[in-house]
Write a structure and sequence with these properties.
The protein is α+β, with helices and mostly antiparallel strands. The protein has a single domain (about 1-130), classed as Hotdog Thioesterase (Thiol Ester Dehydrase, Chain A), CATH 3.10.129. About 25% of the residues lie in helices and about 40% in strands. It has helices at about 20-40, 45-50, 120-125; strands at about 1-5, 50-65, 70-80, 85-95, 100-110. It has a 5-stranded antiparallel beta sheet with strand order 1-3-4-5-2. Strand 3 (about 70-80) and strand 4 (about 85-95) form a beta hairpin. The model has no long low-confidence stretch (mean pLDDT about 95).
């Protein structure tokens, strides 16, 4: 499981002083980007060399507790499954171990033209040890 730490800034909050709901999606996007980087996958090179990108095709999210201005949060990313062209993840946003948000994410591998593509073998090799 990968962890990415962040702090809630004033710009992340709404009129009620809590994190605006859509910002949790930004937080977990950052967590996914850092998870992929930690696996040793260079997404810029993947696109430049092989014309492949990843896109979110499904998000199932539960908002459990509000985060507030200046909270220190941790985004965890756990790989649940890898298939030919899909990656399934579970991501959480935690504050001091308390779950605030949890999401199940499905990513798909696509060509630059937006067509489904197989995940390259070298990337699959990096993903498989990350399962569970």
């Amino acid at each position: 499981m990968h962890q990415f730490d962040l702090r809630v800034y004033y710009e992340d909050t709404d009129l009620a002083g809590v994190v605006y709901y859509a910002n949790y999606l930004k937080f977990i996007e950052r967590g996914r980007s850092e998870w992929v980087r930690a696996l040793g996958v260079d997404q810029i090179a993947l696109k430049a060399d092989q014309g492949l990108v990843f896109a979110v095709c499904r998000v199932e999210a539960d908002y459990l507790r509000p985060a507030k201005f200046d909270d220190e949060l941790a985004v965890t990313t756990q790989c649940l499954a890898v298939s030919g062209a899909r990656i399934e993840l579970r991501q959480q946003v935690l504050r001091g171990g308390e779950r605030l948000f949890v999401a199940h994410i499905t990513l798909v591998c696509l060509t630059d033209a937006g067509h489904p593509a197989r995940i390259p073998a070298d990337m699959r090799a990096k993903l498989l040890p990350a399962l569970h």
